[in-house]
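Example for tutorial group B:
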């Protein structure tokens, strides 16, 4: 991504008021501020304008250590940006590495991530970032390269919602599973935001289905995701 268009952006290059004029939601990930100082500053500029215009702002931590090469650490930069976020998305590993908050006795390599242990992490995140309204954490248990368990939790400051756990064998491609979860979460909040459990179940089902698709994009229909979320996992393909 070095010298890409996104890596060379600077504050003031975009008319955010016009860009956000018909929007209700702004989503960004930790990839953007990792690319360059200018990208990080522009990301903050966009977030602040989105908040001024009363958009919901969500962030996927999406930590990639090899991208943070321009001077400041991920923890330093992301902590400043997350101060303005409404909904934070991540996994326990990225939350620990970027924001320094660790769930005790969690070993994702052994496939034994317990959802309830994310309650401590979620509460600590909201204590540190009082602007947060929701915390969503994906739970991946790595049995081996082609066999994972997959679930997630959603915390709203009062209740911890836990999704069903999927046992995914014969993984086709796990790249993009977290992005599919984030997309499903945003769609869920926009469509049935008054039902947090349904929102979470939809997001986890979307991430689960991504494991069956080659490439990093989840090309899925709402019907396909809702079938998985409803527990219909027979493998039958609808056309």
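The residue assignment follows.
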């Amino acid at each position: 991504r070095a010298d890409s268009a996104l890596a060379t952006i600077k504050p003031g290059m975009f008319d955010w008021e016009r860009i956000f004029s018909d929007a209700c939601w702004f989503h960004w990930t930790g990839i953007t501020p990792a690319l360059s100082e200018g990208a990080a500053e522009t990301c903050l500029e966009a977030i602040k304008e989105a908040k001024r215009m009363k958009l919901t702002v969500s962030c996927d931590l999406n930590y990639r250590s090899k991208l943070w090469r321009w001077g400041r650490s991920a923890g330093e930069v992301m902590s400043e940006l997350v101060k303005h976020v409404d909904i934070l998305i991540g996994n326990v590993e990225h939350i620990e590495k970027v924001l320094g908050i660790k769930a005790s006795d969690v070993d994702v390599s052994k496939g034994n991530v317990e959802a309830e242990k994310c309650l401590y992490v979620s509460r600590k995140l909201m204590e540190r970032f009082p602007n947060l309204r929701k915390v969503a954490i994906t739970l991946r248990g790595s049995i081996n390269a082609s066999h994972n368990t997959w679930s997630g939790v959603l915390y709203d400051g009062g209740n911890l919602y836990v999704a069903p756990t999927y046992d995914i064998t014969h993984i086709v491609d796990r790249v993009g599973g977290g992005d599919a979860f984030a997309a499903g979460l945003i769609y869920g909040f926009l469509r049935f935001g008054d039902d947090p459990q349904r929102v979470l179940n939809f997001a986890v089902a979307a991430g689960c289905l991504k494991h069956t698709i080659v490439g990093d994009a989840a090309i899925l229909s709402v019907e396909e995701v809702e079938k998985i979320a409803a527990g219909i996992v027979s493998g039958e393909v609808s056309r």
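The first strand starts at residue 25 and ends at 29. Compare this with the pattern of hydrophobic and polar residues in the output above.
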